[in-house]
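Project standup — Tuesday

K.O.: blocked on the structure for the chain from last sprint. Re-posting the sequence here as requested.
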Amino acid sequence: MTTHGGPEPVFCTVVPPHVLDKLARSEDPALADPARRTLQRDAYERTHRRLTTVVGAPSIAAPADAEPGKPHRTIHDAGHRTDLPGRKVRGEGEEPGTDATVNRAYAGLGATFELFLSAYARDSIDGGGLPLDATVHYDENYNNAFWNGEQMVFGDGDGEIFLDFTLPIDVIGHELTHGVTQYTANLTYFGQPGALNESMSDVFGSLIKQHTLGQTADEADWLIGAGLLAPRVTGSALRSMKAPGTAYDDDVLGKDPQPATMDDFVRTGRDNGGVHINSGIPNHAFYSVATTLGGHAWERAGQIWYDVLTGGQLKKDALFTDFAALTVAAARARYQDGEELQAVLKAWERVGVRTA
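H.V.: unblocked you, prediction finished:
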């Protein structure tokens, strides 16, 4: 495991600030009020996380009786308040209850654990059996889900734009993968390194969904957050890895701003330098590699990306070109000069990122 001086927990949400900003400006209070409340809560949690990095995050270790290679999950219920973690409602090995949100969170944590263990021999997100904790029913009409450096938190959505954030399993996997990045490459959450951070979460979030459904790369929808948008929204998901910029085009939300290539790279000071926007470029590169190779995307394409994330050469401030070059080296190291290497080279060429 590489931590480049120790993991620095960051506050990472699945819904980008620019989406909530758009909603907050709506003339409809049913849309604007939950968005404003969510933005305020996110700002508080983000500040709290920064303070934690100064004083030091609390140490989290596997219980003494935890069995290696087995998940240790705990689900809490915030009861629509903001105190974390909330009341414990389900522990590891306990039977499902009547709350579908609790059950989905429990299953999603398990699916994430299973993908990393079975595909990459990684025991939990830190590689050392870290307990997986989550809180559901956070705040009132909270329009987000986040990883705060220690646990997962899910809102129920406002029912107008967003539904329950435990519905898409890739949202759960996306946020937990921020934890994997935290414990490995520890990519800085700003600009291109931040977009790579977000892209890693989209990549493995999608792989977790595909692994759970037993899908091949050709069968997958390559959408992030499908099923999260309410019926009134004109859109299919938060993001599309197959076709960045096409996930939604809605009167309220606006149009999906993600670029697919460097020709349309977005320069902005918002959203930590566009981390949720420009992630579309490495996302599309991964999609291209996975579909070119075919079969199960978590195998060869996912293995190359995992090798780079955990290999110790990916610097905290890596640019797209740095990451691309490392994927070429990883493909060559694992698969020599085979079709895997050619797929990686062509994918980065397609999105306009140099690999040399």
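K.O.: great, moving the ticket to review. Confidence is low (pLDDT under 50) at residues 1-6, 52-58. The two ends are 26 Å apart (CA to CA).
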